[in-house]
Give the backbone structure.
Amino acid sequence: MTTRKAMLTIGKGKKIRDLPVYKGTEGPEVIDITALYKESGLFTYDPGYMSTASCESSITYVDGEKGILRYRGYDVTELAGKSNFMEVCYLLLNGELPDKKESELFIAEIKNRSMVHEQLLFLYRGFPRFSHPMAIMCGAFASLSAFYHDSLDIHDEKQRNNAALRMIAKTPTLAAMAYKYSIGKPFNYPRNELDYTTNFLHMLFAVPSEDYKVNKVLAKAMDTIFILHADHEQNASTSTVRLAGSSGANPFACISAGIASLWGPAHGGANEAVINMLEEIGDVKNIPKFIKKAKGKDDPFRLMGFGHRVYKNYDPRVFLLKDTCHKVLAELGMLNNSLLKIAVKLEEIALTDKYFIERNLYPNVDFYSGIIYKAMGIPSNMFTVIFTIARTIGWIAQWKEMIEDPKLKIGRPRQLYTGHKLRKYVSIGKRK
Ligand code: CMC
C-alpha cells in the first residue's frame, strides 16, 4: 500500500495538513481522517457510508462502474465456470486456491463437522411451525456459541479456524432443518458421501421413507449460486459482522448478527421480494403499470431485484444467473414458465426506460435467483436462507481478517446530534 499526503481546507483558511492518502492495489485512493477530530474538532458525516471505507481488506474487489467482482484477485465468473464452492470457500478463507492435498483435507474437515449437536433439535422444536426460516437461522446460529465452548476464544488461531470450519459445515444442515421443520417433515442427517451442495439438496428434499437422487444439473446450478453469493466486500451484513466482531464477540454470535442484517428486503431479502413482485404482476401485460408505480415519487414501491449501491452497471453475477436459470428451467421442462417470461420482459422494458437509464438501475443478483429456486421447488421464504449458506464463508473470511489485523479497534461511529439541549426534569404531575 503506497501513501501520499493530502491537505484539507475547511472554511476560510483552516488547513489540516498531512492527512495520509492510501492507494490500494485497485480502486479509488482513500484519505485517512483518523486525526481529523483531534486536529480540527470536526467529525465527518456520511450516513449510509456513501464515501467512507470502513476497513482495509484483501479479500474481495468490486468495481461498480465496470461491473467487476473478484475474490482474492480471481474473476467471479471464471470461478463459477471452472471452480466449485468448496474450492472458493478455501480461497476466501486462506487467500490462495488449494492444491489437491489441501483441497481433500479441507473437504474432509468440512464433512467431519456437518452434523449438529442433537440437543439443537429441541431448540428447533421450540419455534412455532409458521416461523420464518430466517428467524430460525438467526437463533440457531447464535445458539452454536452455547454448544461449542472450545471455539470461542477469538485470540486462539486454532479455535478461530475450528469455528470457521464448523460454521461452513453446519450452515446447510441448519438451513435444511429450518425448512423441514416448517413443513412438519423429519430432519435429514448429512450424508458424507455427497459433495457439499448435493448434500444440502439431499437434506432439503429427501425423506427417510424412500431413496432420493439429487439432479446433477440442479446441484451444479446451486453450486454456481453459492459461488456467486459467497462474498461481496463491505455490504450491510458483512459490515454488521465486522462491527459486532470488533467488540470481541464470539464468531457464532457475529454471524448471527450478519444473518439478521441479510434478512432485510433491501439486502438478501430481495430475492423473496422479487418472486412476490413477479407473482403480483401476474402477466406481461401488467408490467407497464408496475413500472409506472416504481417511478412514482410518492409511491414506496420499487422494482425488486433492480438497483445496487455499488453497481452502476450490470451486476456481473446476473449474466450467469440468467444463464443458470435457463439451464434449470430447460432441465425441468419449464422454459414456458410465466414468471421467467415476466422477468425477461420486465428487464427489457426497464432497461430502455429513461428513469432506470438515468439512475443506472440494472438487474441485481436477486433478480433471477428466485425463479431458479422456485422452479426447483424451494418455497420463497427459504430464498434468503440459501443466500445465508453461501454468504457464511464471506462473513467468516472478513471476520477472521479483521480479528487477525493488529490495528483492530472497536467500531464506534460518531453522530450529528440534533436532539434537545440540557433540560430540567419535571415531575409527572407538573407536565403539560
Ligand atoms: N426501483 C425504482 N427506483 C429505484 C430502485 C428500484 N429498485 N432502486 C433505486 N431507485 C431510485 C431511487 O428511488 C432513487 O431515485 P431518486 O434519485 O429520484 O430519489 C435513485 O434510484 C437512487 O436510489 P437510492 O435508494 O439512493 O440507492 P441506494 O444505493 O441507496 O439503494 C438499493 C440501493 C439496492 C437498496 C436500491 O436500489 C433498492 O432498494 N433496490 C431494490 C431492492 C433490491 O433489489 N435489493 C437487492 C440489492 S443487491 C443484493 C444484496 O445487496 O443483497
